[in-house]
Design brief:
With 653 residues, the chain is α/β, with parallel strands linked by helices. Among the domains are: 158 residues, 3-Layer(bba) Sandwich (FAD/NAD(P)-binding domain), CATH 3.50.50; 166 residues, FAD/NAD(P)-binding domain (3-Layer(bba) Sandwich), CATH 3.50.50.60. The chain has 20 helices and 25 strands. The strands form eight sheets. Strands 4-3-2-5-19 form a five-stranded parallel sheet, sandwiched between helices. A five-stranded parallel sheet has the order 7-17-8-11-12. Helix 4 packs across helix 7, helix 7 packs antiparallel against helix 18 and helix 8 runs parallel beside helix 16. The protein is globular, with a radius of gyration of 28 Å.
Length: 653
């Protein structure tokens, strides 16, 4: 569905007018004359597609239920925002950051797309993350130290995530970071107008301020500290060194002095060292990094007159100037930035919103073209990029003969991919493809007590690296306890746990007396007629009663649009976060796929009053209704009218 112009009405109907799946006489017999059934309602939890598609494994449905007001804080005096923040931190310690920059695969898979438009998940996440920063919320207090020590190599999203979750499991952590500051790609690969530095600093500080977390910056493992030293001093090692080397253009002439990679460009910019003198820049790519490169180039412009502090570019620490600040202290003229991609523009991997912003800011995006050769002058300086039109066969570009042309330029930036830097003492970790090879538990192959995650094993999203850190921390925890797992769950996310929910509300089942009984519907030791399939199944939209949901327009975050004439030197944030009302509205739009959201349909439509509400004092998420099996006749109506697919017909007693 086109995000810019969602359908202004319902798109789903189960039946057309006059249609019915039942013969009226047969239905009457089923309801009023049946006296027994071998199938009755069971309550089955399954993972929603938003959660299954989230690389960090967020319990998205869970914190949207909090935003909508269904899941109330179990402790008096706790706001819904704090309760939602705590839930978010169980899977991802960077809600404010990821609410801004994650391309939201959760929204792409949202079942609400089948009704009107997806739920604005990123917007709610950003709102809660920003609220937590404004109200100075800290991470949950970690447990006592276990006596085990883990070295985390790399202070980016993957390493910080692993450090956070390892400390929450009781282990001491030492983060080793080659840069002078933590943040990795969140700081050195993404411009500050996308990840504001004060926000990023606040989210990182929550992790590093925990007792038992030590940080060592300006230290490169392999050169300053050997792997052998890590083995002697730590019980386990987690590698999260990222993909710090950009891939150069695979064409003749790419060794020109003014032909660099996008990683180098953004790293230099975000360190405050970048002062471009180029007037014409060509960026080759198509992903979010290439958009960032082109956007930064437009904002920087080119230097026409320098000030005395420009010499600080080679040593920014002396004056403390960042490129954001320096940009406003320099007189600049406009830069012509052309972004080229192999794919048609509408099929670029960059998010549509980022692509449209780039066009608005004056970036010329050209699709279906491929580079052929970097044209150099007698001094080895690139003066142009020879290209041609192309079509795509899968991921392989096919040149179109007779379509060659040259883009004149002063600088060429290659943003076509990244790889890990495994030089200077890290060669034993190299899989042979400039990456670290791991097994399904994120253990480094053929290297004892070493684990890895993030872009070092496969360049992907920041959220993916955070998820790797969370999962690897669980594996490392098992390893430190001497009980390694065999495999991870099929749906490897932070799952809803009914027992934990009942425990939080002091509704734990009674102890089991180990006496044999027939049926558990009246037993206090059992969670009756409930099954948890969340780790193995994702519920599709076809198993929801979508006709329950009316059209509700999606809340969208406002944006501060910058046009081509005013983009120079503009490094202020573009996204305007949700209000509380907008966040709650999006929470209410969530269809709670795979989990009861207390709509009462099953209670209202049951012809035998077999389905009933649990008493208010005994209610919890997932325990809102129950079934009297002595009344149930198995007519299936409750399952048919369940909007969330939580009710399944099954055998039970």
């Amino acid at each position: 569905m086109n995000e810019a112009a969602p359908t202004k009405g319902l798109t789903f109907r189960r039946f057309k007018n006059g249609q019915s799946p039942w013969d009226p006489q047969d239905l009457t017999k089923k309801i009023f004359q049946q006296d027994k059934s071998y199938k009755c309602p069971t309550y089955v939890h399954r993972a929603p597609p938003c959660q299954g598609g989230c690389p960090s494994g967020h319990d998205i449905r869970g914190w949207l239920a909090i935003a909508r007001g269904m899941d109330k804080p179990p402790v008096a005096g706790v706001s819904w925002q704090e309760y939602a923040f705590t839930r978010m931190m169980e899977a991802n310690p960077f809600p404010a950051s990821m609410g801004r920059v994650c391309p939201a695969p959760c929204e792409d898979g949202c079942n609400r797309n089948e009704v009107d438009d997806f739920v604005g998940i990123n917007g709610v996440e950003q709102y809660v993350g920003d609220w937590a920063i404004e109200n100075k919320l800290q991470a949950p207090k970690p447990p006592e130290l276990s006596g085990k020590r883990v070295a985390v190599i790399g202070g980016g999203p993957g390493g910080l995530s692993a450090a956070y979750f390892l400390r929450q499991k009781g282990h001491a952590v030492t983060i080793h970071e080659a840069h002078d500051e933590l943040g990795g790609m969140m700081r050195f690969g993404i411009p500050g107008y996308r990840t504001p530095r004060d926000m990023l600093d606040a989210e990182i500080a929550r992790i590093t301020s925990m007792d038992g977390v030590e940080v060592k910056t300006g230290l490169r493992v392999g050169r300053d500290v050997s792997i052998e030293e890590l083995d002697r001093n730590f019980d386990a090692v987690f590698w999260a060194i990222g993909a710090q080397k950009g891939r150069p253009l695979p064409v003749p002439g790419a060794d020109a002095v003014n032909c660099i990679t996008g990683v180098e460009f953004l790293d230099t910019f975000n360190r405050g060292w970048l002062f471009s003198t180029a007037k014409k820049i060509v960026v080759v790519g198509g992903g979010d990094t290439s958009i960032d490169v082109a956007s930064v180039a437009r904002r920087l412009g080119h230097v026409t007159r320098s000030h005395r502090h420009d010499d600080a570019a080679a040593s920014p620490g002396e004056f403390g100037y960042a490129a954001h600040d320096v940009a406003s202290a320099l007189e600049r003229e406009g830069v012509s930035a052309v972004l080229t991609t192999l794919f048609p523009v509408e099929k670029m991997t960059a998010a549509e919103r980022e692509r449209e912003d780039a066009k608005r800011e004056g970036i010329d995006i050209r699709g279906s073209v491929m580079p052929l050769e970097v044209i150099k002058d007698e001094n080895g300086v690139a003066t142009g990029l020879r290209m041609c039109e192309c079509s795509m066969k899968g991921n392989v570009p096919i040149p179109v003969e007779g379509t060659d042309f040259v883009l004149e330029c002063d600088m060429i930036i290659s943003a076509i991919g990244q790889m890990a830097d495994l030089s200077e003492g890290l060669e034993k970790l190299d899989s042979g493809r400039s990456s670290i090879a791991v097994d399904g538990l994120y253990k480094v192959r053929n290297v004892d007590k070493h684990f890895a995650g993030g872009d070092a094993i496969r360049p992907h999203l920041l959220t993916t690296a955070i998820g790797h850190g969370r999962i690897a921390s669980e594996t490392i925890d098992h390893f430190l306890h001497g009980e390694m797992e065999d495999k991870r769950p099929k749906v490897d996310v932070h799952q809803f746990n009914l027992l934990e929910e009942l425990h939080a509300r002091h509704l734990d089942p009674s102890p089991y007396d180990h006496l044999q009984v027939r049926g558990t519907d009246h037993a206090k030791f059992a969670i009756h007629n409930y099954e948890d399939r969340g780790s193995t199944q994702i519920i599709p939209h076809t198993q929801l009663f979508k006709g329950h949901f009316g059209y509700v327009a999606r809340s969208t975050r406002d944006e501060r649009h910058v046009d081509a004439d005013s983009v120079l030197g503009d490094f202020a944030e573009r996204i305007v976060g949700f209000t509380e009302e907008q966040a709650q509205t999006e929470g209410k739009r969530c269809m709670s796929c795979g989990m009861c959201f207390e709509c009462d349909n099953c209670v209202i439509y049951c012809p035998q009053t077999a389905v009933f509400r649990v008493t208010k004092k005994d209610r919890a998420v997932g325990r809102y209704v129950d079934t009297d099996y002595t009344k149930c006749i198995g007519c299936h109506i409750c399952a048919d009218v369940c909007p969330t697919g939580y009710i399944q017909m099954g055998l039970g007693e």
